[in-house]
Amino acid sequence: MNILVVICGRAGSKGVQNKNIRNFLGKPLIFYTIAAASIFKNENEEELIDICVNSDSEELLKIAGYYEVTCIKRPAELAQDESPKLLSVRQSLAYMEEKNNRRYDYIIDLDITSPLRTSGDILNSLKKLECDERRDVVFSAVPSRRNPYFNMVEKRGEKMSKVMDGSYQARQQAPRVYDMNASIYCYRRSSLMNRLKKSPLDGDFDIILMRDTAVLDIDSEEDFKMMEYLADGYFQNEFQEVLTWKENHKTEKR
Predict the structure, then answer these.
(1) Whole-angstrom distance, CA of residue 121 vs CA of residue 211
(2) Cα angle vertex 73, ends 69, 78, to 5°?
(3) Is residue 129 within 8 Å of residue 27, measured between CB atoms?
(4) N or C: which end of the chain has fewer CB within 10 A?
(5) pLDDT for 253 beyond 50
(6) What is the largest CA-CA distance in the chain?
(7) Is 140:210 a contact under the CB 8 Å cutoff?
(8) pLDDT above 70 for 252
(9) Using only C-alpha atoms, what is the Rg of the chain?
(10) Residue 96, CB half-sphere, CA atoms under 13 Å: how many?
(11) CA distance 23 to 17
(12) Do residues 67 and 251 make contact, with C-beta atoms less than 8 angstroms apart?
């Protein structure tokens, strides 16, 4: 089975300046996603797994190059605020298939700004998609802390209303809902190229559950500080494998 891991990151950021390359617990933020992908590759040697980083940032690609992954320059038209990420994932797939003269079966997209994942989380997404041919994509999620059927409201015109209709008296009675945590997306190749248009939600999807980390996606200075705080505790326990790779990786030259 041929698997491509894609890590995408744009230059700059409106919420947190240069967040993808900013030091996070002493290393560039992108390091932790490359580490998890590399551990996943090393632990699944029976599969052919390639890793690439796609960006319009020369500095980010330079950093990624230290960790023995393929670097792909993103064209300006795919690096706009309104550019769907899915287009950059497709660009990466086309580039890697031509470069390596092989066809990938599955493409796994790992987000730099949601680094609290393990190689086991990545494998779970792949196995779930592999076992269900009906699905186009499997992505990571966590149980939602709020439920639109019970304790969420929205403004409609001049009044506030419940987001979803329902007469539930307790949250436990309401349908279960989940927050996408923007960490892992595992695509079937045929679906990525032919069925999905601009979003993983365009097709038939399923989820894997990850540990709830307050569903942080780094979009502000406060998010960055909180993620560091969570990671500092988690990396001492469940993310020990990432720390080990960090300490032993000998190709760092910075």
Answers:
(1) 10
(2) 125
(3) no
(4) C
(5) no
(6) 60
(7) yes
(8) no
(9) 19
(10) 29
(11) 11
(12) yes
The single residue listed with the structure tokens 């030091």 is 23
Q: How many CB atoms lie within 10 A of CB 50?
A: 19
DSSP per-residue codes, 166-189: ---SSGGGSPP-EEEEEEEEEEEH
CA 239 to CA 120: how far, in whole Å? 10
Pairwise CA distance, residues 186 & 5, whole Å: 9
Neighbour count for residue 190 (Cβ, 10 Å): 10
Q: 8-42, pLDDT tens digit by residue?
A: 998 866 667 788 888 888 889 999 999 999 999 99
Give me 59's structure tokens: 């500095």
- Six-digit token string for 28: 């560039």
Name the nearest CA neighbour of 240 among 35, 64, 67, 41: 35
Q: How far apart are CA 222 and CA 230, in angstroms?
A: 12
Give CA–CA dist 117/80, Å, rounded. 27
Of the pLDDT bands very low, low, confident and very high (cuts 50, 70, 90), residue 251 is: very low
Two tokens at 61? 């690609």
Q: How far apart are CA 139 and CA 137, in angstroms?
A: 7
